[in-house]
Structure formats: C-alpha cells, structure tokens
Design goal:
Layout (H helix, E strand, L loop, with lengths): L3 H12 L21 E5 L2 E4 L4 E4 L14 H13 L8 H13 L5 E5 L2 H16 L3 E5 L12 E2 L9 E2 L6 H4 L2 E4 L4 H11 L3 E6 L13 H13 L3 E5 L11 H6 L5 E4 L10 E5 L1 H4 L18 H15 L3 H22 L5 E5 L2 E5 L15 H14 L2 E2 L8 E2 L6 H16 L1
The structure holds pyridoxal-5'-phosphate.
Amino acid sequence: MTTTNAALFERATRVIPGGVDSPVRAFRAVGGTPKFFASAQGAYVTDADGKKYLDFVGSWGPLILGHSHPVAVKAVQDAAALGMTYGAPCKGEVELAERVVAAYPGLEQVRFVSSGTEATMSAIRLARGATGRDLIVKFSGCYHGHADHLLVAAGSGLVTHGQPSSAGVPADFAALTRVLPLDDEAKLKALFAAEGNKVAAVIIEPIPANNGLLLQRPEFLKLLRKLTQESGTLLIFDEVISGFRVGFGGAAALYGITPDIATFGKVIGGGLPVGAYGGSRAVMKHIAPEGPVYQAGTLSGNPVAMAAGLATLKVLEQDKAFVRLEELGAQLESELAPVLKAAKSPCGFVRVGSIGWIALQAGTVRSAEVLDNGAGERYKPVFHGLLDRGIYVAPSAYEVMFLSLVHTPAEITRFTQALGEVLAG
Ligand SMILES: *Cc1c(COP(=O)(O)O)cnc(C)c1O
C-alpha cells in the first residue's frame, strides 16, 4: 500500500532535487522515506498519513515555545492582516531590535536579515570591511550556514588553508578561510602567532551544536577572546542556535564572554524566516547606509516575521521560561542516565539547558576530530525505533534534540522509556 507520505515524496523527487529543500530532511543518513508534515500543535507533529509524533526536532531549533503557540499565531495573523511586507521600515523591527540589544552582552545595534546563513555571511563581510583584512578562521565541526567562505573544511598536513567542502566553492575563496580544530589551544596560539594580524574575524559556535554537542571548555573560549583582542581580530559568536535558547544573553552571558559581533536566527524568528547580526555601534557603523559595507534584503525586517519573533521573546520573558526549560532538561538527563548505562554499546548524553545530544560513543567529545564515524550506522535503528514508537528525533546521529516550553515531564519520561526499549534492541 502506498502511503500519502510515500506518494508525496515520489512527486517531490520529480520537481525538487532529492525531494527536499534542505538536504538533511531527506533521511539519507538513516534510510527510509522522509515524513511530510501536514500540521503541528504544541509538542506534536502530524504527518501526511495522519500519524502523530512527539517532536524533539522543533524545526531544528526555532520552536522554543512548541508548535503554533497561540500567542505567536495571533501575533502573526494580526500582522499579516495589516500587511505582508512593506519594503519600508516598520515598528516591529524597532521593537524586536530593542529587545535583542537589551538582552545580549555588548550589543548596541542589530540588523535583521532573513536566515542564519545571511546573518553569518553578512557578519563576515562586515568584519572584513571593518578591519580591512581578508582572512577568516573557523573551527571544524561548527556549521555557519552555506555561504561560500564558510563551506570550508580543514586542509591536510600542517598548512591550515581550507579546502572547499562543497562543489561550487572556488578553491581561491576557501584559501582565505583557515580551519582549526575545536579545543586545541596550541593550534590556536600558533595560528595567531603566525598570521593573527591578517585575520579579520574568527567565527565560532560558542556552543557547537551542529556536529553533536561539542561543549567547549570556557578557558578555550576565553583564550580565543584574548588572542582576537590582542591582534585586532573581530570575534564572531554564531548564536543562531544558542541565542535566546540557553538564555536571553545566549552563550555570551552563559560564559561571560562578549564577542564583537553576534549572529542570530532560529528562536529569534519564532518559526518564521529571521536572522540577525549585531555588535557595538563602532562596528555596526560600517554597514550601509552609514558605512561602506553593503548588505540589503527585500524582505529584511518583514512585519509578519518580526511579529513572530517578538511574540516568542515576550512569552520567554514570562513564566520563568528558562528555569522551566532547565528543569525539563535536568529531568531528561537524570532519567536517561540509567537507560544509557544499560545500553549494549557505549553511549552518553550531553546537555546545555534545552539542547541535548545522545552520543552513541564513549568519552567526552569536544572536537569533531574525536567524533566516532560509526555512530551514524548505530543510530539508524535508534531513529527508526523511536519513529515507530511515535517519537520524532533528528534523522542524523550528529544532530541535537531540542526541548520546548510545551514538553511535559510525562512526555520526557515517555521519550526516555522508548529510547530504553530501542537501545535494549
Ligand atoms: C542553522 C544555523 C545556521 C544557518 O541558519 P539558516 O537559517 O539555516 O540559514 C548558521 N549557524 C548556525 C550555528 C546554525 O545552527
């Protein structure tokens, strides 16, 4: 029997490359047919065949309030009725910018764009324009969207020149990006000693959450802040996941480290397409129309998207939201501990607030270099076992799970029990 899901996917593959508009959605890492979602409410998504899943993907991070929170939906409906887009300034931009600037350490100005990719791409251009330098540094294992100079992997040998990690990225572009391992102070110091004065910016996910959850030692981040400061290099915290997810001040407040530029996305748009980048007035004055660094967007600061972001931040400000998210996370962590211990092969759980990662490997993992390649294969039955039990987690071993304000303690327990069954085989 052909399911509606399978039929939709079959149609999709004819007119959309791989049948999806973002690669990881295609289930290539876990096998099987991706689920087409028809609706979602609270902590649950419903697929095209009418099957309901308890959702821990949350659209990869934005849905900290859960799906279709009534306050956000009302705000979006009201805004849309007034106008879908103006191509001119609107009050929502001012209100959201005021909130973001007030919340985040060191931020005085912020520019809204339409995705996280645009935010990091613009932040890099800003850093190059502000410093007059061309080189940038990124860390392997961190993801910053799909702009050319950030789709770069470490080169081989001692040379830190990057190699394109996607076809279509010119080697000459990648050569301007240096790639370092996370958690390696010696390599970081060596790079700054050799060419620190040529580096426009270092970009890092201060909470790397796109390749497992590679929590950094605060000392490493502090060293990074010190070295960048000393060499006139701008430090960019890519907080597209962690911003307004681990607290209002993101990782910057969590670690007490203020970057020069911060990028946002995901939660800040409450499920609508919003990205943002910001910094001090002294840095942001380089952006057009004030300065010579060009950056623009037809739909930037879109009134409907601003309303969704604003509603999300307002709800987060009430009801001790981050206290509650921490409680849910702590419950998940403590309930998972015996389950993971009893599992047949080594596994662990890494968590910060409402972001969690089930590591199908032993030991502490702080860099992409020590990620176990075999985890992908071991994850397949885990993913499908959970899916069969009506639980939706990311279709990749190296993606994190997100808790939202609408997850209940009972649902956390349901997840833990299901995972226990699946891991017991
Ligand atoms: C998701 C993500 C991006 C890219 O955001 P998009 O909205 O998908 O373009 C950039 N940086 C980080 C840390 C992300 O998690």
